[in-house]
Design goal:
heterodimer, A: 416 residues, mainly alpha, B: 179 residues, alpha/beta, Rossmann fold, 5-stranded parallel β-sheet, 5 strands, globular
Chain lengths: 416, 179
Amino acid sequence: MPSFVSETLAILLLVATLACAVTRPRGWPEAVFAIPAAVLLLVLGVLPLSQAGAEARSLAPTIGFLAAILVLADLSDRYGLFEAAGSWMATGSRGRPVALLALVFVVASVVTAVLGLDATVLLLTPVVLTTVARLRLRAKPHAYACTHLANSASLLLPVSNLTNLLAFRASGLSFTRFGAIMALPWLAAIAVEWGVLRRFFATDLVGRSETEVATPLRIPVFASTVVALTLVGFFVASVLRVNPAFAALGGAVTLAVPALVRRRVKVRDIGLSLDVPFLAFVLTLGLVVKAVSLHGLSSLVVRLVPSGTSLGSLLLVAGIAAVLANLINNLPAVLLLLPAAAAAGPGVVLAVLIGVNAGPNLTYVGSLATLLWRRVLRQRGEELPTSEFLRLGVVTVPPVLLASTVALWVSLRLVG
Amino acid sequence: MIQPMRVVVWLVEGTWQGCLDAAAQILPSDAQVALLHVTPSDVGEVAEAATAGLLGRAFRVHRPTGHFEEVADEEASEILQAAATRLGRENTELVHRRGRVEREVVRAVAEGVDLLVVARDGDRSRLGPHSLGHATRFIVDHAPCPVLLVWPDEAPGIESIPPPPGHHPPPHGPRRESP
């Protein structure tokens, strides 16, 4: 098959996969669309079997790591860690909305960094929303804090975001080094989000809760200790040159066993939290993107992505990554950019991550996908999110990208 | 016969007590008062929007708003009940709506309402500079009836307004005009 035919076919299938993943016809899981796309590319020979095998082998440890983190976060929730965090924030804020927002920032940043952005969006956000409602304060600033920090506070560790996990292996950095370099960019992103949200919602952060705060829930000691030890385990594993995925696996198993023995969870629940369709989606999307990269697009990306680590180059890389994440969603964006970025060195990989992680606060799903998604919402008769979220994105994303990339540049010079 | 004045008081988290107290002082005793609270729908939409960005997790995504809407509705009725008790007038109507806050408030005063009472938002330690949140701004701009904007607290003094740029206050306080 001529190369341009293969390339066109691969691109069409990628776009179709993404479109279906966003709109989800008949409510089917995304993997239902990604698997046939990958199979079709294999059958037509657009993606040679050897290449597919190599890509699958290189993705497998990452997917295993992701699976362990998903189970760890889900079990922490079942042990009541997030409920307890909600109660702790309510008590700690003493009913003052700015103090509550500050605590939401702390908790959301830590949860995102340690348990990943999925945990913040799916497990922490509902708890924060009900906490604010029970305190009879205005919930909007806190809702935005959770959704924004799930993205921009996911810079710190390889486990904080699936994009980081994908980049982690390609970067050749150790877990500890990754964290050490990204600490400053992570703090910079959180600081900018705080400054902007605090001002943007100044008129909503008013009054004081008049409700009696119930006796605070006890922080589940066992679950929080296991999560903390898992975090330590990541660094220890990295020093011992063991794959840190084993620390995540260890944490997940340590939480799972007593819960299973005491019948607090069933094996089925753990199977569900593993989310096999998601893992299959990541694998097959990886294969589809690989097919796209094989036929000419990768050389285009190499030409597009600057390879230096001067401040200007890093800013350009972060900018390109952010734009791409907003055009097509950050998952395919990082898969497309990684080969070129990895060849240019870890500094460039981390700049890509700043772009693809913080960038989505502008349009969340990527503008192409946003258009489709808005159509779906309209068909379902649901109200569209206000222009507010776009306005907030416009005032946060550029300064976050700038501050985090400058911080990365400084970090690379300090930590090297 | 003169119809009693029909008044809607819009109550929001954070300012409702002050708004109600200010309204109680000003409103004529025979005014027909409706207390209005709107549970915002866009908070849930923000949370939903974040899940839309999580490509591939359709299988696991439950409603990210959790019990937020239930809890918010419960708290809204509590606020309305507490407000009716605080106001202590007979025949106070309680109105609970859900949706885009600014639109629902304007809709609630679309017909036969003589006055809408709303509280300013924002920092209470000084006058201005921006004291109307997005919803309040929209309501003041779009309400088809007279709007009374009240301080939810005792208003601070006029000296809390910073002087205009380039202005230097006189060293010994304001000068008096000579007669």
